[in-house]
Amino acid sequence: ASKMDPSSTTIPDVVKEFIQYFYKCYLEDNVYELHGCYENTFNKLTEKFYKNETWPDPIKEVAPLVNNDQVFLVLYSEVYYRHIYAKLNPTLQQRCDSYSNYCNLFNLILNNDGGPVTFELPNKWLWEIIDEFIYQFIQFTLYRTKLAYKFKMSEQDINELNYLQEHNEVWNAYSVLNALYSLIGRSKIKEQLQAQKKGFTQQQINEIAGEYGNLPLYKNLGYFSIIGLLRIHTVLGDFTLALKTMEDIELNKKAFLTRIPGCHFTTYYYVGCCYLMMHRYSDAIKIFSHILLFISRTKNINKSGQYDAITKRSEQMYALLTICIGLSPTRIDDILHQHIKQKFGEQLSQILKTNDFNKTVQVYEELFKFGFPRFISISFPNFTNPQLNTDALALHLKVFMIKVTNSVFNNLLRTYLSLYSTMELKKLLNFLVSDKDIKIDNLDQLRSILLSFKLNNRQVRWVDHESSSAQNNENLENTLLEGSISNVNDFDINLKNDNLISIIELKVARKFSDWFIRNTLKNYQVQDTIANADKLLEENSQTYQNNNTNSSFNSNSNKQQKNRKNKN
């Protein structure tokens, strides 16, 4: 029997009823019921009827059910193409059609002839519109790059190649960025957030927001677009600009982004990636620790449709946290440490021992490839000479590994240097040479390693938030690019006369001897008090009786004086 075209098959009655009810909720602006249809019913029907095939075609099958309402069809098409990306392997035509649908959706929202649109959508749907828009852009870029690397092409590949060359505006980086910046500008979300920080009243903020920014649809799309820019600039490799876009959003437990779990995890993941690539390892550890602790505490509560994606994202963050600990050893929460031991225990042990240089470097590369997002290039690939194309992920890995290779011996050096206040260079060299796996031949090579150790010890980090661990985890306000240079280790090193290493303690160690002496004296005083308790009780009772006698005598004398005055 020949396979039937999915578009020609009849729609099950339960699916027809769902689409009509979905459309009714949209017309009535019933956001609560829309959320139920979008989040629950759609996924249940997908598992039952469309697990391995597409949903009903928007134009051919759904349009007659919804009175050919073009606005609703654009919204339905957004979910329709997202299902294809999630469950199936989209064709080039479907990728292009999805891009065209997003263009129609954003044009409707931004350039509607009658002013701002009046329909409302659930916040989760608004976030996933932005998130999926960026995801499909990245996937199309990777798809196009993969096609450019092919040396042996089929006839279909050649046709797709010709189409891409003729239509290079499809999923163009400029158009994607322009859509996000337009949503931010139309909603005036940055001005609203700045006014909120300055303590403006709600009435003043509403005046700043204007006709569009006061509507939840525009305000929330603008807010989520800021986080979308964080993601795009990160995968494009501009980490400073990525953090700069977040300057008006505060990372704390009261932030609006925490209401949408996917938005919450995405924000912290990409902020942590930026810090790691900028070599701000201490700040990256704080970011990853905060969100991973949150996930571990809510994993039994927050099991939504994106649970698998959140689990994978958390494993990526554990991999990146392992890299951070290897480059900047820090004590972390026991829960996180236990998770790292379960997932990446062997890798962590290897990068902390550093007894095998090549193997350690290989472990860092594996963790990097697993943990970081797929970087992309903004330039159009060279289809004529594929060998001239560069892999963005390989390029960023190469740059990152330059820093890592200069830091491999830092953990071993820290172990030796922490035991001394001064040490001769030759003595340290003898320690290192005694390890057969470490190949350091001369003093000049050791000096360069020590210089690298000193430079890596100095990092830009948050200083204002170190007074309280609660602040570190819950109040990372507008300081994403701020910070001052400070030493990561508890000591610093100087080289005197080109031969003597001086180790300078930066953190004053607690004098345990004084503490024991002071508390020992307190202990003796308590023991004396207990031993002489009866004697002290007698003395206290005697003092109490004397006080009562004196007080009664004084009261009697006062009465006598008053009587004399009355007689006179």
Highlighted features:
3-stranded antiparallel beta sheet, 7 strands, globular, PCI domain-containing protein, 5% strand, initiation factor, 66% helix, mainly alpha
Using the alpha-carbon principal axes, give the shape.
globular
Bin the helical content.
55-70%
Strand order of the largest sheet: 2-7-6
Give the mean pLDDT.
82
Beta strands, count: 7
Q: Determine the structural class based on helices, strands and strand pairing.
A: mainly alpha
- List the total number of helices: 24
* Relative strand content: under 5%
Runs with pLDDT <50, length 5+? 1-8, 464-478
C-alpha Rg, in Å? 34 Å
How far from one another are the termini? 133 Å
Largest sheet: 3 strands, antiparallel
GO molecular function, one term: translation initiation factor activity
Biased composition (Low complexity): 544-560
Region (Disordered): 544-568
InterPro entries: eIF3l
Verbal overview:
The protein has helices spanning 13-27, 31-49, 58-62, 70-87, 92-110, 123-148, 155-166, 173-187, 189-197, 202-213, 216-236, 239-244, 261-277, 281-298, 307-327, 334-353, 357-371, 392-405, 410-417, 425-433, 443-457, 469-474, 512-531, 533-567, and strands at residues 251-252, 422-424, 458-461, 475-476, 484-487, 491-496, 500-505. It has a domain at 509-536. The chain is built from 24 helices and seven strands. Strand 6 and strand 7 (500-505) form a beta hairpin. Helix 6 (123-148) runs parallel beside helix 11, helix 15 (307-327) crosses helix 16 and helix 15 packs antiparallel against helix 17 (357-371). The strands form three sheets. A three-stranded antiparallel sheet has the order 2-7-6. Strands 1-4 form a two-stranded antiparallel sheet. Strands 3-5 form a two-stranded antiparallel sheet. Keywords: Cytoplasm, Initiation factor, Protein biosynthesis. This is PCI domain-containing protein.
